[in-house]
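Tutorial handout. Part one gives the primary structure; part two gives the three-dimensional structure as tokens.
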Amino acid sequence: SNISKSVRTGKKIPITLSVDEINLILDSIDTTKSNGLRDKSIISILYSCGLRVSELINMHLTNLYLDDNIVRVFGKGNKERLIPIGSKAMNDLILYLDQIRPKLSRKSDSKGIIYLSNRGKKLSRKTVWNLINIISFKSDINKKISPHTFRHSFATHLLEGGADLRVVQELLG
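Part two.
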């Protein structure tokens, strides 16, 4: 079960989602609902780029290099890294930027933040946790899913696909 801890270290073993499970989660999002496109883009970027929540909520439009499918992220200790955005996540992002973000950014000074709340402000960590809780509950995947689950799954899938450990470490910062 998910509660099983490894006996020696007492650390929880991080939960990984399969590619199918991630697709199930993304497909379960109703993009006709008000925050659907935004939430789908958030989850697909978290997974596609292996971001920390703090990195996601602080992403600025100026950090996007859409022509090159790259996002520039500032991680812990303000360390900068460039991360490729997968094609699905790219499509979700562009839909959000074209159709949703302009409406949200009119409500307040968005300061160029990419993902905005209904009031046009930067999202809180708690909002991201909550939306992931709600979406993963609806998708019927019986695992304890947090924003970090997508980061862990990103790393696991790259390694399973034969990526070099050092490259994965670089991408994760």
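Part three, for discussion. The CA atoms of residues 25 and 140 lie 8 Å apart. The first strand starts at residue 64 and ends at 65.
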